[in-house]
Specification:
With 237 residues, this protein is an alpha/beta fold. It folds into 2 domains: 149 residues, SPOUT methyltransferase, trefoil knot domain (Alpha/beta knot), CATH 3.40.1280; 57 residues, Trp Operon Repressor, Chain A (Orthogonal Bundle). The chain has 9 helices and 9 strands. Strands 2-1-6-5-7 form a 5-stranded parallel beta sheet. It has a two-stranded antiparallel ribbon with strand order 3-4. It has a two-stranded antiparallel ribbon with strand order 8-9. α4 packs across α6 and α8 crosses α9. The protein starts with 9 loop residues before the first strand and ends with a helix. Bound molecules: S-adenosyl-L-homocysteine. S-adenosyl-L-homocysteine binds next to β5.
């Protein structure tokens, strides 16, 4: 007997002038799988649909001068209101936001309702930014719009939702879980271009495998991301 699908664990509303950009992520990416599995629901609002201007303008020149155009508060705020409801957590994507990381993904995955607001052009009128619950940056570089950043956040959050991934255990042992990078992975064939898979992985001895993986995690993290080790040490004092 088929069980009635439960309500999705997370509802995400995306405010964007370019909803079409999300098509392939929703069709082929993990967020699409999470939607089909019923654990994620995604809706869109386009500020252009909330512009009262006959030519559907959503942007205007910045007061005080300067290059480019700024998203006007009216249509943007109306679009946000159309996908937000009581209890929604509203996050703006912005290069000045807090750096997105695994902890932020886990924090957002625990929400029930999330709204992601994508800027464009020179950005968003400050009076709308002031109403965001937080601002999120995906790195110290400038994208032409918030859509790619929102897709990165959506993907990282969706894969943490219960039932979204084929193997629920895999999220727990991945990079950044426990403050370390992941151990190196190998698969078939056993010998590839003369390079062998480390023998311990074929030994069937789970305790030895675990110890080897832990050692490699520490070595890799020390070599590639020593800042992670320092961060976890300082958080323990
Ligand atoms: N003039 C702004 C940049 C605007 S870029 C500035 O100098 O800070 C246009 C939009 O792209 C932004 O409103 C934001 O939504 C998005 N964006 C650009 N870089 C981003 C980043 N690193 N992380 C998240 N969003 C970003």
């Amino acid at each position: 007997m088929r069980r009635k699908p439960a309500a999705p664990a997370l509802r995400v509303g995306i405010v964007t002038l370019a909803p079409g950009m999300f098509g392939s992520v929703l069709a082929e990416g993990l967020p699409g799988r999470a939607i089909r599995a019923g654990v994620l629901a995604v809706g869109f609002a386009n500020p252009r649909d909330f512009s009262h201007d006959p030519r559907r303008h959503v942007d205007a020149r910045p007061y005080g001068g300067g290059p480019g155009m700024v998203l006007m508060p009216g249509p943007l705020a109306a679009a946000i209101r159309s996908v937000a409801s009581k209890g929604s957590w509203v996050a703006g994507l912005s290069p000045r936001g807090k750096a997105f990381d695994a902890a932020a993904a886990a924090r957002l995955a625990a929400k029930k309702k999330l709204v992601l607001v994508c800027g464009r052009y020179e950005g968003i009128d400050e009076r709308v930014c002031e109403r965001f619950d937080e601002e999120i940056s995906i790195g110290d570089f400038v994208l032409s719009g918030g859509e790619i950043a929102a897709m990165a956040v959506l993907d990282a959050v969706a894969r943490l939702l219960p039932g979204a991934m084929g193997n629920a255990a895999s999220a727990a042992v991945e990079s950044f879980g426990g403050g370390l990078l992941e151990y190196p992975q190998y698969t078939r064939p056993r010998v590839w271009r003369g390079k062998r898979v480390p023998a311990v992985l074929l030994s069937g001895n789970h305790a030895r495998i675990e110890a080897w993986r832990r050692r490699r995690q520490l070595e890799l993290t020390r070599k590639l991301r020593p800042d992670l080790l320092l961060a976890s040490k300082s958080s323990k004092v």
